[in-house]
Amino acid sequence: MKTDDLIDMLARGPDVRVDAHRWRRFLVPALLGLAACVLLMQLLLGTRHDIGRALLLPAFWIKFCFALVLSVVGAFAVRKVSAPGAKLGGLAPMVGLPIVALWGLAAWVLWQAPPDARAALVWGQTWRVCTVLIVVLAVPVFIAALVAIKKRAPTRLRTAGAAAGLASGATAAMVYCFHCPEMSPAFVGVWYVLGIAAMTLVGALIGPKVLSW
């Protein structure tokens, strides 16, 4: 099917609307990767003991929605750049908008906080492991994204790999929210973003090697 996809995409252009069957090619690996990510989180870390109370706090939903938005943008990027000759188009600014918004909120929170409390808002208690755990949890989603991309015969391999890294890192951050005790937007704006950025960089580096066809 990869050769057929290539011929079809070259004939009709990379921006053609995909049908339901092609969406399923991405949906199934995505759901499997997400399920594996959740299972890995439960096996390694578990859900925070006070998750019921955390779900009532706006700060939890801020960090969750931040990761969710980036995960959705990453998923669309994966689907888009997997086609031969495809470009990100308007998706690139959409990656930066939630990050800038979060950093703006973090700056406001730090400005409102007493000077002696600002360091704790940035470093929290888990800064040593947060980024690493996001990267570890992202692995199954990353593999699933690479499998889905490779089936479509991409030509921009580095960009496609970066898109897979972005999607997997953001999805892992979203799942990690249910374990992480940190609530400060400043913490999320540093250590969550670093975890997502690390996966994006990994994807860009290994994309040309694993996605070549």
From TrEMBL:
Q: Name one Pfam family in it.
A: NrsF
Specify whether Signal is a keyword of the entry.
no
Keyword list (alphabetical) reads:
Membrane, Transmembrane, Transmembrane helix
Q: Where are the transmembrane segments?
A: 26-45, 57-78, 90-111, 126-148, 160-178, 190-211
UniProt xrefs under InterPro entries: NrsF
What name has this protein been given in UniProt? DUF1109 domain-containing protein
- Organism field: Telluria antibiotica
